[in-house]
Every structure is written in C-alpha cells, then in structure tokens.
Design brief:
Blueprint (H helix, E strand, L loop, with lengths): L4 H25 L5 H25 L2 H9 L1 H15 L7 H20 L3 H22 L10 H22 L7 H41 L11 H13 L6 E8 L2 H8 L1 H18 L4 E7 L2 E7 L3 H16 L3 E2 L5 E2 L3 E8 L6 H17 L5 E3 L11
Helix pairs in contact: 1-2, 1-8, 2-3, 2-4, 3-5, 4-5, 4-6, 5-6, 6-7, 7-8, 10-11, 11-12
Length: 389
C-alpha cells in the first residue's frame, strides 16, 4: 500500500497546527520563558510554509511553492533559538536575516527559470545545519542531566537523515524515476511528522523536567548569595565520605572576621554585598571541580576535589589574601576591608564521619580566630593521606 503524498502533507499540517496552538497558549500563560515564543513562532512559520507548499502542489504555482520554501528559514531559526532558550542561551538575530537573504537569493532562479533545485538544495543544507546545531546544544554538559532531551535529539537525527536522502536525490546521486521521487518525498514527509510530534511532545517533557530540577536546585541554594545552603553541603559531604573515592580533597570552613561591625556601621545592605562578593572570591579562587556553600550568617565552606596538597594550600592562602586586599565601597565615600579565618582539612576522608570531620575543622577555625584572625589552621586527624605543614 502506498501513502498518498497530499494526505501526508495534511497530516504534517494538522500536527503542526496542534502544537502551534499549544505553544502559543503556553507562551501567553508563561511569558517569562521566552523560548515558548520561539517555539510558537517556529510552528507558525512551519505550518504556513507547509500550507503554501501544499497549495503549490495542488495548483502548481511555482511562486507560491517558493514562498513556502523561503519561510523555512525563520521556521528553523526559531527552532534553533528555542533549543538554545531551553538551555539558557541566546541566539543573534543576524542568523535569521542572513538565512532569509540566502534563501531568497537561491529562490530567484527558481522563480524566473522555473527551476526549484537551487532553493531546495540551500533549504535542505540550512535545515541540516540548524538540526546539527540543536544536537550540539543538547549535548552540552549542563543539559545532559535532562533525560527528555533524547526525544529532541532523536527528532533532529531522524530529520537530518531524511534531508540527506533528499539531498542525494537532488544532486542526482539517487536515480531519478517517479517511483524514487515519490519514495523520497514520502520519507521526507514521514520524517516531518516524526520531527513535529517528537519535538512538541518532548518540548513539554523537557520543560517540566527542567522546572522540577530548578525547583529542587533552588531548595538547595542560599537565596542571598546563590551558594549552596547548609542542607546541600551536609548532603554533598556525606555522599563524598561514604563513596569509594580515594582521591584527596580540600575542605575549608571560613568565618568572616568582625562581620557584625560592618553590619552595624554600614547597614545590612552593605553586609549583604560583602557576603555576595565573598562567595565570588571563593568561587573564583577555589580550584574546580569545587563546591561552595553558605553554612549560615557569615560562615561558609568550600570543598575542592582532586588536587595536590601544594595546590590546596596555595588556594587557601589565595582566598585569604584576595579578601584581605579587597576594598569594599558602599557609596558616599564609605569603605571597609574584611578578613576571614578558616579551619582546613586535606585528605581523602577515609574512616571519617561528617560530624567528626566538621567538629575538627570547626575547632581549627576558632583556634585561627583566637590566635589573631586572617589565617587558616589545618586539622590533623592522623589520616595517612594527610600531609603535615
């Protein structure tokens, strides 16, 4: 049984219209997430292009068919923009203008000479490029934790394969017969249905999954500084100590010296700014991969993984020296300098509980404060992996 091409066109049209309506409604309900607008525009342009292409087939009007061809450019630009929006990236509009201009230029010979090959080739290559860029975006580390991305990946791969077959046909690498022509169009349209349905379905799935992850992440973050909170720190350290890892890590517990005087003298907004800036200093001076947490008030902790003893000590000293030399300016000529004291542990955590480790580091922290502040003291837990200063 052969599939009727016009029927396949209209099935594509129907699914496109369904998902266009759904994304337009969602973009209206949730305007803060701009990728919904991009998805809606993608489907609207796609449906319009498909409608014009269907009309062109029905009444054999080449100009109408090529107008639908040109609309493919904004369709896949907004597809590309939506994928990047899902991963919190932005796309320059120059790609849209450039792709539209390229397709229009390629379409001119098709309109004047009644030859659609030029615009068809350019269109297929541009769509392949957009799908390939989307695949690259969906393979980035910050998106890999979303399992629903595989649906979008599959849709892009299926579409690329269909487009490659179409290109082989256009370049004459597949024999031209009406049977071959019909088979290529059938594959192309079936891939279009798969692409539309998978994209639409997994778009909503991926958005739901990402929102759930963001809510879970938000519950583990400090609202003021963006650092992880005490709960997240305890979970992370507990997991680390209970794992089979044998590599050494650096743990520092830090407390800002005389922080209350900053709050009292310059006000809470100034104190908040010091806390935020201190988290930046910790993040920038702690070797990656690292974990930065605010344990409460002006007390913080960092964990840096897989580093040598020399690098750990250097990082600890660099944090203290960077904060010591920084001048905080609060306007109206008001300035302040802040220091911090810290307790430090370096080792692999073997046979240590979270409570024992933190109690030891905490004692070192307050010993650092007692002996003059603006320094760190290292805990010695008789751990064979811990070198002595």
């Amino acid at each position: 049984m052969t599939l009727d091409l016009v029927t396949l066109y209209f099935v594509n049209l129907l699914y496109g219209a369904i998902f266009a309506s759904a994304t337009i409604l969602t973009a209206y309900i949730d305007p803060s997430r701009t990728y919904w607008r991009s998805w809606a525009l993608c489907y609207v342009y796609g449906v319009t292009s498909l409608f014009l292409s269907t009309t062109g087939i029905a009444i054999d009007r080449n100009v109408v068919l090529q107008a639908g061809n040109i609309l493919i450019a904004p369709t896949f630009f907004y597809y590309y923009e939506a994928i990047y929006g899902l991963t919190n990236r932005r796309v320059s509009k120059r790609y849209l203008y450039g792709s539209c201009a390229l397709l229009f230029t390629a379409t001119l010979p098709a309109i004047t000479n009644n030859n659609v090959i030029y615009s068809d080739v350019v269109r297929q290559i541009m769509v392949i490029a957009a799908c390939a860029a989307a695949i690259h975006c969906l393979m980035q580390p910050d998106v890999r934790r979303l399992t629903s991305r595989f649906g979008l990946l599959l849709s892009a791969i299926v579409h690329i394969l269909a487009l490659v077959i179409h290109l082989l046909f256009l370049f004459g690498l597949l024999p031209f017969t009406w049977a071959t022509h019909e088979m290529v169009l059938t594959v192309h349209l079936l891939a279009g249905i798969v692409f539309t349905v998978l994209n639409g379905t997994f778009l909503f799935a991926m958005t739901h999954e990402r929102n759930a992850l963001e809510n879970r992440e938000e519950a583990l973050r400090d609202a003021l500084t963006g650092a992880y909170n005490r709960r997240a720190f305890d979970q992370y350290l507990s997991l680390k100590l209970s794992s089979d890892e044998t590599s050494n890590f650096l743990l520092m517990q830090l407390d800002l010296d005389h922080f209350k005087s900053v709050d009292d003298q310059f006000g809470h907004p100034a104190g908040d700014r010091v806390l935020i800036e201190f988290v930046h200093i910790l993040s920038e001076n702690t070797p990656a991969p690292h974990f930065v947490a605010r344990l409460g008030g002006e007390e913080f902790a960092i964990i840096a993984n897989d580093l040598s003893f020399q690098r750990a000590i250097k990082a600890a000293d660099q944090i203290l020296r960077t904060l010591e030399t920084k001048t905080f300016e609060f306007g109206n000529g008001q300035k302040a300098q802040v220091t911090t004291s810290a307790g430090l542990y370096y080792g692999n955590g073997d046979d240590l509980s979270v409570e024992d480790l933190m109690a030891s580091v905490d004692r070192c922290l307050y010993e650092a404060k007692r002996t003059g502040r603006n320094r760190f003291i290292r805990a010695d837990l008789n751990n064979s992996a811990t070198a002595s200063l």
